[in-house]
Amino acid sequence: MIGSAFLWLAIVGLAILPQSVMAQSLTAAGDSSSVAVVPPHTTYHLQTFLTYTRPAEKTKLRNYFFEAVGPYPMAGAALAAGINQANNTPPEWKQGAEGYGKRFASDFGIAAVSTTTRYALAQVFKEDTLYYRCQCKGVFPRLGHAAISTFTARRGDDGHRVFSFPALIAPYAGSMTAVYGWYPSRFGAKDALRMGNYTVLGYVGGNIALEFLFSGPHSWLSRLHLNNGHGAPTPGSNP
Question: The pTM is what?
Fold first, then answer.
């Protein structure tokens, strides 16, 4: 059971990571929310002004659809369903193509509900829940930033950080919906909370990966603005 839990956590983290990565790329490509900072290892180090621009409604809508029904959540659901199929979880769904189909639909539905809840509540609370890499240095400060970002968001024109109820509630909204919507009747609130906890840990893992993931300047990942701060200007540009 312990091994299965850790394996499930790893799958959740892998599923969440590419969603967050692409969300950043979609946001950085347009009129996105950004923290304009100096890219590391450049001569552009005298101007370190931080600016923030809230994402446009079109950008948020585009990010939502990609995170909710795009190829990455589908791939994550397929992997998670495969693990659940191997562990025969839940056993009531049995094996074979039909059992795998139920597990895939369930995992995809949980992710879709969680994403929808996060975006909908963020809209109500006027929050920006995208992940922003830390402008600090050192492993432990960056680890702390990644962990704290799981439960925080940016609010207001200045993008100040606040505790985020949408970020906290969303993982449990997905698992609660599954337990009371399509899981076998023997499952209850405790199971939903347990599943939600794994999802939260998966978000933490995804944030840590985003914080420390590095790629060369000519790689595909460099196009997703992972090497610099979110929305960082190119060397020689004005912030």
Answer: 0.69
